[in-house]
Amino acid sequence: MERTSDDYNWHFRMTGRKRTVINTVSYNYLGFAENIGPCADAAEQTVLRDGVGVCSTRQELGTMRIHQELEEVMARFLGTEDAICFGMGFATNSMNIPCLISKGCLIVSDELNHNSLANGSRLSGATVKVFRHNDMQQLEAVLRDAVVYGQPRTHRPWKKILIIVEGIYSMEGSVVKLREVIELKKKYKAYLYMDEAHSIGALGATGRGAVEYWGCDPRDVDIMMGTFTKSFGSAGGYLAGSKRTIAHLRATSHSTIYATSFSPPVAQQIITSTKIIMGEICSGEGERRLKQLAQNAKYFRRSLQEMGFIVYGNDDSPIVPLLIFMPAKIAAFSREMYERNIGVVVVGFPATPITLARARFCLSAAHTKPMLDKVLAAVDEVGDKLRLKFSRLKPPPRGSTLW
Q1: Which of 95, 259, 260, 300 is the most exposed place for a label (fewest CB within 10 A)?
Q2: Which pLDDT score, from 0 to 100, does residue 1 have?
Q3: How many other CB atoms are found less than 10 A from the CB of residue 344?
Q4: End-to-end Cα, the chain, rounded Å
């Protein structure tokens, strides 16, 4: 539905017109955000059986069998001893990091970590040190200094050292160097907290995220965090790890003490989509979606590179940032794409450095090749019009974008 503003976006009014556009914005990586199919059917049956609300917290009368099933399914999917789920992804980080670490502890955080991780780190009262994005040499230098020198002034050892990283970074499309992080974590006897909001369901042969992508052991990641708002087409987030850690969170987390429990149909959406990914129901459908997403991501990224655009991120990431650079062209790119019936998100300062403005495309298994070809044709045309083809690298040979 179209809207317009008469006072420079202070207020908006609906125009009454509708327009159909191709959505390249949402995090619907596996295409489960749909109103038909097994997930929608299961959620509908859950509404009829359990209703839509719980009206109580997990620690009072808000724990239903469906919540226990959800946590059992997630622990099995992730390969961990236990898991706990929350109704909001942002709060999963911001409300639970303070339960794990406190004053006298050190958090070592990637500079591009999400705002929810930064908020949780601040609320914890721990000291925070930042290292350059995915720079393992600087990460080791920070850890070494922390072990050698200890706390400021007193030089007492830190009570805990917690490394916080993400699986896929949402503005860069880059994948964490997990093997190296785990090696450093073990070497310096630190703990590891990994936010897999964008990587769970989107990376790995069976969708199990960065751990599977790099061939690591889930037990080497002390806290595995993720959200259900992306690959699962639902809402909320989870934390997974050892039984002892999860039991501590169940007893102390503000999200279990004060927040209302998951809506049953929301929980059922996650259960059904996870079982499809694991192949427990709708045999072959989860595998098909995972392969389609990987194929779409590679095809779209390499096509942009062939056109001469500068593109950030890992080849296997479903997030494809296209560099615009100049702030003045941010709105122009969005409007030109909208005129061609393509919905895009453009990002500038302060979300990115002022000279690194970009358009961020999020690929989905629900995108068909004709859809992607239409988007690519529009990007190619707008790129020429706005002079955005800055790449000086030799593009991949034509025909290398396998479909």
Answers
A1: 260
A2: 85
A3: 25
A4: 33
Q: Using CA atoms, how far apart are residues 234 and 269, in angstroms rounded to an integer? A: 6
CB count, 10 Å around CB of 318?
31
The Cα 345–Cα 360 span in angstroms is 6
pLDDT in tens, 184-239: 999 999 999 999 999 999 999 999 999 999 999 999 999 999 999 999 999 999 99
pLDDT of residue 394: 72
pTM: 0.94
When the pLDDT of each residue in the chain is averaged and rounded to a whole number, the result is 95
Mutual angle of helices 285-307 and 264-278, in 10-degree steps? 80
Contact 54, 41 (CB under 8 A): no
The count of other CB atoms within 10 Å of the CB of residue 293 is: 25
d(CA 50, CA 54): 9
Which residues partner with 131 through β-bridges?
110
Q: How far is CA 141 from the centre of its chain?
A: 27
SS3 80: coil
What is the distance of C-alpha 338 from the center of its chain? 25
